[in-house]
From TrEMBL:
Organism: Bombyx mandarina (Wild silk moth)
A molecular function (GO) term: structural constituent of ribosome
Superkingdom of origin organism: Eukaryota
Major localisation: mitochondrion
Protein name stated in the entry: Ribosomal protein
Subcellular locations according to the entry: Mitochondrion
Assigned keywords, A-Z: Mitochondrion, Ribonucleoprotein, Ribosomal protein, Transit peptide
Gene Ontology annotations for the cellular component aspect, listed alphabetically: mitochondrial large ribosomal subunit
Family per similarity comment: Belongs to the bacterial ribosomal protein bL36 family.
PANTHER family associated with the record: 39S RIBOSOMAL PROTEIN L36, MITOCHONDRIAL (PTHR46909), LARGE RIBOSOMAL SUBUNIT PROTEIN BL36M (PTHR46909:SF1)
Any Pfam family matching the protein: Ribosomal_L36
Length: 106
């Protein structure tokens, strides 16, 4: 507070006038200076969660099987939606006589 009064005295001596009305306008923010919050028109719903293992979270959750994936849909809580990851292909090597026989031709 004392620093403010010393600043006012210095400003008065430099300008030669009264600085207090200017400082009062600066220190008191008006309502128009603030940004008014915007209310969203659409309710936000979270998307589908992608998980390695899906499970039911409530009684209204149900399973849907499509395109090698398992989906969990929920009519009561939309945030319970889940989708399983696609299974990785295991043992997809091309097996031939050259790669499987104990005797190599070379």
């Amino acid at each position: 507070m004392q620093k403010l009064f010393s600043l006012v005295k210095v400003a008065n001596s430099l300008i030669g006038g009264n600085v207090l009305p200017i400082l009062n306008r600066i220190s008191q923010p008006s309502v128009t200076n603030f940004v008014k919050p915007v209310i969203p028109l659409v309710t936000q719903i979270s998307g589908i969660k992608i998980k390695g293992r899906v499970r039911r979270r409530c009684r209204s959750c149900y399973f849907v099987f499509r395109d090698e994936r398992v989906y969990i849909m929920c009519s009561k809580f939309p945030r319970h939606k889940q989708m399983s990851m696609k299974p990785k292909p295991h043992n997809t090597w091309i097996l031939t006589q050259a790669s499987q026989s104990p005797v190599r031709p070379w």
